[in-house]
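REVIEWER CHECKLIST
Item 1: Sequence provided? yes
Item 2: Single chain? yes
Item 3: Sequence as submitted:
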Amino acid sequence: MELKRNGSQPSARGPAEKRKQSMTTQNIPTVTLNNGRKIPQLGFGTLNVPPDRDPTPANTAKTAEIVGLALQRGYRHIDTAQMYGNECGVGRAIAEAGIPREELWITSKLGNGNHRPDDVHRSFDETLDKLGLDYLDLFLIHWPLPTLSEVDYVSTWRAVTELLAGGRLGSAGVSNFQPDHLDRIVRETGLVPVVNQIEVHPYFRNDSVRDATRRNGIAIEAWSPLGQGHIVNDAVIAKIATAHAKTVAQVILRWHIQNGHIVFPKSMHQERMEENLAIFDFQLSNGELAAIGALDKGESGRIGPNPSTFAWIPSKSMPAPVS
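Item 4: Structure as written out by the authors:
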């Protein structure tokens, strides 16, 4: 299939800027998924990047500016979602970046109100249209919603995997699926997700879900990898950061990388974007990894909702409150 370029024009950035981008991008390792595709292990998250409200230039400008800055700094993996309400702005940034489509990895997620099989297909078409893309690299079921009688996440999963046959979706996965959810969809469909995107950070290791995810041969994507600011003052991590002349955030992201997690921290500030990329020039020792892992608080460390009971359906005027 011919790759769509979104009508973008060649970048006007100078040679020095292009060299910086190239070097930064080359430093980001990839994770090989169970379908053989390679995903950049570090990406850029867009939760709370301003929603579009409507797709006019004025209403997509801020999102396009932020995501465009991330692409300029060297990010090539962008994570968005139908419920974030900013797919148009993300698409505009992609179109304006002048980066060949095959160099990008773009993920979006199914909105909680779109679980019916017909709505899966309809909303996926809308996602591609908003992003201005011919194909999506990865599409996830955002939440399983197991307590809602009108939702059957197995049927939803079947509908998502049907999208793979048309050439417009490269990989299919899930998000916030618990061990019993994973076991059920694999048992009843024989179709294994490539990733499970779940809450993971040093205060909430989420071991049972990570173990079940790995047992099924599924890669782990960690949302809220920095604990949404709850961990920045931790004395244990601060001591490790000082020893490596790094920030607490960089040490936490390095902990994720060495644990094999795929991460996509979000920031609206250029200096933080650059800081989050600068994590591939140092290594945590086994002792340091263990010390950070020992900070786990179990269920009390959870920041987001419990996926076993979360049952929120957004209205059109109300974007999702969590990843």
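Item 5: Key structural point noted by reviewer: Strands lie at 30-32, 38-40, 44-45, 77-79, 105-110, 136-141, 169-175, 195-199, 219-223, 262-263.
Item 6: Recommendation: ____
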